[in-house]
Structures are given as structure tokens and as C-alpha cells.
């Protein structure tokens, strides 16, 4: 907060925009409101309804600080309404969908990860784990790793440094040479991950972003958490929430398939960023029409 406040005092911005639900999101929001600078929150209105998650507190507090709230889904708009937030709420879609549409084409041209790992499209699974719910609880982490070993399909497991540390700390190491179906890889860049996701038969993750990317690509997803803020992906049949139950993970992996019919446009039309810019411009002009030429 101190460092952000120093930047705001030096730059004197007309608005501060924060994104998502990280600690830096909340820090930016609090720094802005204390300096009486209008605040815009991108990805507003998300709720997991799990107050044990630090991200949930960050979301709620940031939303209640904000002057403009840019919601990715209608569910997010409704969540805000239930908390009495109706002014400044805008349904714009998800800028992650904008990014996936733009960078998927780039990934196809540049990424060689499918070839480098010797993978065949739709013949492997992608897995990631990073949330404290899974990494900091030995039994949960053991359950998930045990489930991975019981799954008969090849799994590409992108191992977060924190997860790798906990695997070692809890004594859950298993030499890779003895694990035929499980391929450990270091974290990869955005373009490589897009290719891994798009070509996977199924994704297992506790990442909120990957749940959405799975939906964007039409890839079934199993969420290794007890809840999700992206409930729309569950309602449409593309995602199932299983927590860390070993038997359920294995069963759902064997049976999970793409839904026969499903709505595919719940996160906007790929132009969320343009709607956000237009709304900001209109808001600034409404407060100061003399700035028309500069904008």
C-alpha cells in the first residue's frame, strides 16, 4: 500500500484500475480510496462464498470500495446486487476470453510444446495444483497425487514451485521413472499452457483461470477445490467440483465427457476490453466534458 500510494501521489491519475482478487488488488484499492481517487475493479462480483479463502475477502472488500465495477458474467452482477451494490455496475464480459481468442492463434504459430513432450491431441490430461487448500494440507495433497497415479491416462502435471516444495516436505516424492502415466514438468509460459489446455482430453486443476480456459476451449474440467467462483462452468456441464477426495477424482476422470448441448457465450463476445475502455471514457467525459478532445 505504501509503495502504491507513492506512485499515485507522483502520477496523480484520474482513475485507478485494479484486477482480480490478489493481495495487490486490495492494496491498490485501499490506496486509491484513501487518496480519494476513483476506483474501477475489473472482474468484479465473483464469489466463492468461502471466507477461508484470502481471495474471497479481497474480492468483497475491493468491490465495496469501487466506483465502477466491471463484471464478467450475469451471475457476478447478481452477486453484487445481493450485497446492495448496484451503482456503477457494468456487465462487460471477461477479458480473459479476449486474451484467449487473441493469443490462441499466436500459440499455434509459436508453441512447440505438444511436439516436444511427445503428446497426441486429446490423448492426455493436464493437471495443476497451487492453492493452499491442497498444497498446505498433507492429506489433501496425498489424496490428489494418489488419484493421479490411479488414473490410467497420461497426465502432464505442471508443478508449481510451491507444490513441488510441499511434495518434498511431506515426504510424498515418488521417482518419476516409476510413474508411467504421470509426467512432471516445470511451469510453462502462457502460450505453451494454452496449447496444452486446448489439446487435452481433460483438465484437473484448482486454478480459477484454467477453469475458464477449459470452458473457452470446450475441454471438460475437474476442479480440485470444494467450491468455485465460476459456477457457470458447472451449471453448463463443462466443470465438476470434487475437492480432494481421491475416489471421486478418479471416478470423475473416467466418466467426465463434454456435455451434449451447452451454452457457449456466457463470458461475453471477446470485446470486454473495448467495453471497459468505452465505459471509462464516458464516465470521465460525464464528469468533465472539456476533456473530449484529449480522449
Structure description:
With 295 residues, the chain is α/β, with parallel strands linked by helices. It folds into 2 domains: 2-94 and 268-291, Rossmann fold; 97-255, Glycogen Phosphorylase B (Rossmann fold). It has helices spanning 2-11, 23-34, 54-65, 74-82, 95-110, 113-116, 132-135, 138-150, 161-169, 190-199, 208-217, 231-235, 246-255, 272-287; strands at residues 16-19, 39-42, 68-71, 89-91, 125-129, 155-159, 182-185, 202-205, 221-223, 239-241. The strands form 2 sheets. It has a 6-stranded parallel β-sheet with strand order 7-6-5-8-9-10, with helices on both faces. A 4-stranded parallel β-sheet has the order 1-2-3-4, with helices on both faces. Helix 12 links the parallel strand 9 (221-223) and strand 10. Helix 2 runs parallel beside helix 3, helix 5 (95-110) packs across helix 10 and helix 8 (138-150) runs parallel beside helix 13 (246-255). The longest helix is centred in the middle third of the chain and has 16 residues, at 95-110. The protein is globular. The chain starts with a helix and ends in an 8-residue tail after the last helix. The mean pLDDT is 93.
Task: Annotate the secondary structure layout.
Elements: H1 2-11, E1 16-19, H2 23-34, E2 39-42, H3 54-65, E3 68-71, H4 74-82, E4 89-91, H5 95-110, H6 113-116, E5 125-129, H7 132-135, H8 138-150, E6 155-159, H9 161-169, E7 182-185, H10 190-199, E8 202-205, H11 208-217, E9 221-223, H12 231-235, E10 239-241, H13 246-255, H14 272-287
Parallel strand pairs: 1-2, 2-3, 3-4, 5-6, 5-8, 6-7, 8-9, 9-10
Helix pairs in contact: 1-2, 2-3, 5-10, 8-13
Amino acid at each position: 500500500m505504501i509503495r502504491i500510494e507513492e506512485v499515485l501521489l507522483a502520477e496523480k491519475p484520474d482513475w485507478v484500475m485494479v484486477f482480480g482478487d490478489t493481495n495487490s488488488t486490495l492494496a491498490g484499492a485501499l490506496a486509491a480510496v484513501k487518496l480519494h481517487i476513483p476506483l474501477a475493479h475489473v472482474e468484479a462480483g465473483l464469489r466463492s462464498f468461502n471466507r477461508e479463502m484470502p481471495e474471497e475477502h479481497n474480492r468483497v472488500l475491493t468491490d465495496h470500495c469501487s466506483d465502477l465495477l466491471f463484471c464478467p458474467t450475469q451471475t457476478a452482477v447478481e452477486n453484487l446486487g445481493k450485497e446492495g451494490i448496484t451503482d456503477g455496475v457494468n456487465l462487460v464480459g471477461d477479458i480473459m476470453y479476449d486474451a484467449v481468442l487473441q493469443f490462441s492463434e499466436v500459440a499455434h504459430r509459436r508453441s512447440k510444446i505438444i511436439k516436444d513432450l511427445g503428446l497426441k491431441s486429446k490423448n492426455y490430461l493436464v493437471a495443476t495444483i497451487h492453492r493452499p487448500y491442497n498444497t498446505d494440507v498433507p492429506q489433501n495433497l496425498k489424496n490428489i497425487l494418489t488419484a493421479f497415479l490411479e488414473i490410467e491416462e497420461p497426465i502432464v502435471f505442471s508443478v508449481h514451485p510451491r507444490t513441488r516444495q510441499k511434495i518434498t516436505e511431506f515426504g510424498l516424492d515418488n521417482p518419476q521413472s516409476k510413474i508411467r502415466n504421470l509426467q512432471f514438468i516445470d511451469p510453462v509460459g502462457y502460450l505453451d499452457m494454452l496449447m496444452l489446455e486446448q489439446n487435452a482430453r481433460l483438465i484437473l486443476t484448482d486454478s480459477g483461470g484454467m477453469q475458464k480456459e477449459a470452458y473457452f476451449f470446450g475441454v471438460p474440467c475437474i476442479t480440485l477445490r470444494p467450491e468455485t467462483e465460476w459456477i457457470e462452468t458447472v451449471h453448463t456441464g463443462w466443470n465438476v467440483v470434487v475437492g480432494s477426495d481421491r475416489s471421486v477424482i478418479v471416478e470423475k476422470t473416467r466418466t467426465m465427457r463434454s456435455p451434449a448441448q451447452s451454452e457457449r457465450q456466457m463470458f461475453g463476445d471477446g470485446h470486454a476490453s473495448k467495453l471497459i475502455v468505452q465505459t471509462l471514457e464516458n464516465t470521465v467525459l460525464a464528469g468533465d466534458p472539456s476533456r473530449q478532445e484529449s480522449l
